Amino acid sequence: MRGALGLLCVAVVALPFTLAWRYDALHRAVAAQAPAPAAGAAPVPRVAAPAAAPPVVLAYHDVGDERHGRFTVSPRRLDTHLRALREAGYRTLSTREFTAYLRTGRAPAPRSVYLTFDDGAHGLWVHADPILRRYGMRAAAFLITGRVGTHRPYYLTWPEIGRMAESGRWDFQTHTDDGHDRAPVDATGHRASVFGHRLWLAAERRRETVREYRRRIAADLDRSVRAVTAHGLPRPELFAHPFSEATDGTDARVLDAVLRERFTAALTNSARRPLPPGPRAAAAGQVQRTAVTRGTTAAALLRSIARQAPVAPGAAGRPLERAGDWEFPDDMAGTGVGALTGKGPYPPGHRYIWAGHRPVATADWTSYRLRAAVSGLRGPGTGAGITVRAGSGHPVKLTVGRGAARLAGQGRVRSCRLDPAAGHGLAVTVTPAQVRVSVDGRPCALLRAHRRDEAEGAGGFALDVRDDDRSGHWPAFTSLTVE
């Protein structure tokens, strides 16, 4: 009896301390949320939104003090983004709604976005959640599950994740368990994403084998999925590539296969070709996102979303008259459409200039006709080109010189001789089954598709001009229409 009474006394005395300890532990595991920024603290821009458009995926990272880095968006800026989206008529999607769209192609709203936040940073609970609550919006956090609760206060804790899940505003997907890092991938010490590449095993002076690589990334993904479901959350349906790095070759094929076995799709900011959300992207295993950084204004965000809205070939009209519809490679940043039309300026140090016409908005084109006129063809060192099905798995390129034209694609080449001239009129007709070219009103070349694969063969077009002689006399497209 005395022993029992003693234990009871100890329990009674210890109870307040136990409760205090548990409260303190929970308090440290669940930080206080910051209030949302003052309503209307920043003006919302007026940017025309498309009448209807498929979902666009926005890729954020942390939310907090802007001094923390390029990928940390301030609470005030996020508030302005979400208010601008709401006023422009955009609705946010849950992961279930978004993956249903990937399967069916049917969007649940005329205009929508899927908000994603990579890494699982602490700022999602402290800053982003109150802002989502203000606007009645939803988002998905892509967790590095092995880092949850570590490196405090940078990463979320599982109790914070639980609170976010209970709110109904958040879904939780995977961003690897412990694969968000860089390491040497060859004997020279070149470092790259450990998830997207086979590693260099320095002690054995070799790279991982394909089998070792597959086993490693599969084990990481399985740990990540188990960590999420072990905390009572739904099984992740989507994966976001670490660093949003796309890879090529054997490693890419292995990684794609492992991801397809586990997820509906993988998200990346740097897809190997334009893959806007939809069944075609899901079939390819990659969905393209739009990166949002510290410097992204609300106006720039709305314009970027609008630019991704699909445009029908018949609505493209005269693309050379709309300078903002052209995208040049990174090493030609600042180059304008004048470099294609003969007006300049031209990027210094280049002999070849290339630009794509709204690659994402035209990514699903399968049937269209281009009519163009080219001038300034002076000799074998100058030429102009049109690539159709651009950015697809089966691009086809027409190259035109002073006295010859060449059509190449899918490992085949067709050529024709032309009456030598400084300029030519071109017509390129694209269907799922073939690409047909006429020059100066006469049939020139035809390439039939190996198979009718619209998912791999869809795509818009790009233009290029070439001055191999460095003469400074560039060819020019003097007209271009799309039908």
UniProtKB/TrEMBL annotation:
**Originating species:** Streptomyces fumanus
Xref: Pfam families = Polysacc_deac_1
Protein name stated in the entry: NodB homology domain-containing protein
Write down the Gene3D superfamilies for this protein, in alphabetical order. Glycoside hydrolase/deacetylase
Q: Which intervals hold domain NodB homology? A: 111-242
The yes or no answer to whether the keyword rRNA-binding is present is no
Gene Ontology terms, cellular component aspect? extracellular region
Where is the region Disordered?
A: 270-290
Gene Ontology molecular-function annotations: hydrolase activity, acting on carbon-nitrogen (but not peptide) bonds
Q: Choose any GO biological process term that the UniProt entry carries and state it.
A: carbohydrate metabolic process
Would the keyword Ribonucleoprotein be found if you checked this record's keyword annotation? no
